[in-house]
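User: My instructor asked us to take a sequence, write out its structure as tokens, and then describe one feature of it. I'm not sure where to start. Here is the sequence I was given:
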Amino acid sequence: METLLSLFAQASLFELLAPSPPGWGGTLLRGLANSVQIALGAFGIGLLIGTAGAYGKLYGGPVIRDLMEVYTTVVRAVPELVLILLLYYAGTDLINRMLEAMGQPRIDISGLVAGIAVLGFVQGAYATEVIRGAILSIPQGQIEAARAYGMSPLLLLRRITLPAMLPFAIPGLANLWLIATKDTALLAVVGFNELTLATRQAAGATKAYFTFFVAAGALYLLLTLFSNVIIGWVEKRARRGIPAVGGAN
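Assistant: Let's start with the prediction itself. The structure tokens for your sequence are:
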């Protein structure tokens, strides 16, 4: 056993110290750029779905509330990889079947668009619960006062609800963003050229598995650290004027 561990350590050290084959650094960076594009798009769609879903759960009629409950329960219960495979293949096929039924030609859906839509649909279920909890954390007197002044629902959302719930929602939404950056790796199973698939291709072509997967891990880590800096800045601005927890009265 000790001999095997020694051989593995020597092989890993050799791969790490050996010069990387030329031409693959750009491939990894392009894969990272694709991953960031997908994560940004999916997170944005998830926010829109989550905001609508939270309002539907809180203020919608019985039918809307039941539909939102089914949506969030199913998406959170089924593994994300299964949802991605189902939505990516079955969803694109369903769209083309509908187009054919209407006499329209089939379309070739972009992998980038499909990846963003699939992950955005998944993100929306989690964002619904995060935003719903944040809205419930708002002191109800603020909302009642706005309604007493005759604010329309959209004006109430823009001026009262969204600004007031943001400090409560940021921690949960920050976690969803970090999850979105890592969930892009799941799209490798459907052949989309994001960072994980690019890493697999580079490692398979050069056999330098340790080198390239360590490099991919480092890129994901750098993305997370950069995201944490941005999230911290946004949270600091959103909490201006709010006493810090445990601070002096």
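For the description part of your assignment, you could build on this observation: DSSP finds nine helices and no strands in the chain. Try explaining in your own words what that tells you about the chain.
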